[in-house]
Amino acid sequence: MTLVFTITEVNRGLLLKYPYAALDGDLTITANDTTFFLESVALLDFALAVQHWLHSAAKTSVLLHFDYSPEDSTDNPVLYLTPLAIAHFAVHSAWVESPIAPVVSLPDVTAGFENFLLALNEYMQREYNVAFADIPLFKQP
């Protein structure tokens, strides 16, 4: 699973204080060589949900649901991963591009999420001189 973003709007003044609304962009999610999702999202809000899920998933041997449903969205869930047997997930979205819910492995989901966070963090450092470590909401408990 790959997640690629393009920044469309940034409010630099909110990056540290209120990151949920600070960075918007187009997010493309590809699974099994099929574009499943292509929509504009609040990228830092999504990144916070991804980081929280990765942190929680690392603490358990049970497959965890992932649900990204921002409060201001009327079409929920924006992205939802349903655990299946043997370390796989079905990927769902109210904004689906592909009519078939792809099935992806836990390692593919984890790698896709980690690569997304790494790329977004590097982009923010390069373009805005702000890293996730500078944002209080991104600090691990």
Please summarize what this structure is.
The protein has 141 residues and is an alpha+beta fold.
Provide structural commentary:
Residues 16-125 form the DUF7878 domain. This is DUF7878 domain-containing protein. InterPro entries: DUF7878 (IPR057200). It comes from Hymenobacter polaris. A hairpin with a 3-residue loop joins strand 5 (79-84) and strand 6 (88-92). The chain has helices spanning 43-58, 106-128; strands spanning 2-10, 23-31, 34-42, 66-68, 79-84, 88-92, 103-105. The mean pLDDT is 87. The chain is globular and about 45 Å long. With 141 residues, the chain is α+β, with helices and mostly antiparallel strands. It has a domain at 2-61 and 95-101 and 108-138. The chain has 2 helices and 7 strands; from the N terminus they run E-E-E-H-E-E-E-E-H. The strands form 2 sheets. It has a 4-stranded antiparallel beta sheet. A 3-stranded antiparallel beta sheet has the order 1-2-3. Helix 1 packs across helix 2.
Task: Profile the largest sheet.
Answer: 4 strands, antiparallel
Poorly predicted ranges: none
Structural class computed from helices and strand pairing: alpha+beta
**Rg over C-alpha atoms, rounded to the nearest angstrom:** 15 Å
Count all strands and give the number: 7
Q: How many separate helices?
A: 2
Rounded mean pLDDT is 87
Strand content: 25-35%
Short key terms for the protein model shown above:
three-stranded antiparallel beta sheet, four-stranded antiparallel beta sheet, alpha+beta, 31% strand
